[in-house]
């Protein structure tokens, strides 16, 4: 788990968020208010929900972020978190304390470094990469997609 996680606020502009991603070579930013996670912004969100529909770069990330963020608990078993990542098709998952505050970020790369059960990692990766129809982000930005 990564403990020192770069975060942004809901008012951060798409431009500023993209700069942070480029400067830090990361593809996702948790959106927080205080220590509470209120969304997740990925480079794909910027491409599909902002650039593809010509939203201005001054648009606040709150307009394009994913609000229903899948999280795991700091006391959760690694296998359970990995299964959840596969089921939800996410490569990274915020880690929350018992109080619901964000305390870190768990990524597939973190798991590869600490777990030598490559079969479970392989299953999760297969689940994440398996196509599942029209991407939910596209459906959110294109009214012609049901």
UniProtKB/TrEMBL annotation:
Gene3D superfamilies reported for this sequence: CBS-domain (3.10.580.10)
Keyword Repeat in annotation: yes
Pfam family membership, one: CBS
UniProt KW keywords: CBS domain, Repeat
Domain of life from the UniProt record: Bacteria
InterPro entries (alphabetical): CBS_dom (IPR000644), CBS_dom_sf (IPR046342), CBS_domain-containing (IPR051462)
Tagged with keyword Repeat: yes
SUPFAM superfamilies attached to this UniProt entry: CBS-domain pair (SSF54631)
Residue span, CBS domain: 1-59, 65-125
Family annotation (PANTHER family): CBS DOMAIN-CONTAINING PROTEIN CBSX2, CHLOROPLASTIC, CBS DOMAIN-CONTAINING PROTEIN YHCV
Protein's name in the database: CBS domain-containing protein
Source species: Sphingobium baderi LL03
